[in-house]
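User: Predict the complex.
Assistant: Input components as received:
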Amino acid sequence: EPEVTQTPSHQVTQMGQEVILRCVPISNHLYFYWYRQILGQKVEFLVSFYNNEISEKSEIFDDQFSVERPDGSNFTLKIRSTKLEDSAMYFCASSEEGQGNGELFFGEGSRLTVL
Amino acid sequence: DQQVKQNSPSLSVQEGRISILNCDYTNSMFDYFLWYKKYPAEGPTFLISISSIKDKNEDGRFTVFLNKSAKHLSLHIVPSQPGDSAVYFCAASAPGNTPLVFGKGTRLSVIA
């Protein structure tokens, strides 16, 4: 069964460092997303990506964040200068249709710990 | 601003009994609702969804009920099994490919 894969599963970094989280969405999906979950809190939307551009982003997704689809398979989230409050589980997701029309398939998540 | 609320952080149910997980929402524009299940160290997995034009959707042991006037939905699992023990997230979206809004989740424990 096709699945969304994410690497790394866990990354520990120092405050101020750049971090890149990688995702391989399901191959025939057209919509890609990043969500995050701070420990004990709800899953929060960060950004959606379609047709090689950001289609929607939340207030959380400020100038420190960027996304890229560098090739036909990878979808990356970059945090330019990490802050302590960026510590969270980051989930990549993909879907065939947009969020309002079908299910999202999530990866297992990348845990980011900022020290 | 919690647009999707799951007021019970946890629920314990005996194996074989019915589990009822509740979810309330405030945004009347939401027209599509989903339930996701999440095991530890895994990402959320889609479980079942319902469109606002329906009030019930059933898939095996899982049934979702939607009460639009009360802005309330619930997930029923019957009979509950130990493998159902997980965190269940309610999510909702408005028309136009808007982002899913998740609740905080309810941890279900099914006791054998």
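The CA atoms of residues 39 and 86 of chain B lie 5 Å apart.
Let me know if you want any component modeled separately.
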